[in-house]
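Quick question, first post here. What does this chain look like in 3D?
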Amino acid sequence: MGLEPGSNPILFVMGYQLDFSVIIKNLPLFLKGVFLTVEISFFAIIIGLCIGILAAVARTSRFKILNLIAAAYVEVFRNTPLLIQIFIIFFGLPSIGIKLSPYISGLTALVLYVGAYNTEVIRAGLEAIPRGQMEAAKSIGLTGVQTFLYIILPQTFRISLPALGNNWVALVKNSSLVSVIGMVELTWVALDLNALTFRSFELFGAATIFYLILIFILINIQTFVEKRFAYKT
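> Answer (accepted):
Ran it through. Tokens below.
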């Protein structure tokens, strides 16, 4: 059976008719989903990094209560599924009077999740810094805060960056889970259009390509930053 002149290009593969025009028609919706995916991932990376630094400092603190709280946080959020965490924040918290929007719920879950993984990565980086550097900083009159900000933290970030990059890549992929609470990100767009058009292969294939592009860009940014902060020899 041939195509009608002027009709949209359709490919026949093993009896399935591939019609990529559905992607072109709905490209603005896909781009909207990509934008939200980038937005929520960016905020989760930045806030999650801050939480990871604070929790890692608490994990290495001499104050046992801080160490215990940070350890409990890490154990809970690293050892439970992200999807369950999203459900608890969005569906569970309203039962105790805390109602959050889908956007805030999804962002909160991603931040807490990636923050727990960042904590252990940064803690390992902190513990890799020789103790003698802190003593040397104290001997030249630097305060504890100055020592941490200007000497310890930059080196920790340099050491931790490859592992942090892996966490961030996983975060972008895991951001697809917030589609279950109605966030109109990339995966939600593909699911919604699939329910309307039943063009599963084309729509989810397009979503896959968009995710690959985002991950490729993120990896290249990470590589650039690693080279920028690499030790000069």
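The radius of gyration is 23 Å.
The longest helix spans residues 27-59.
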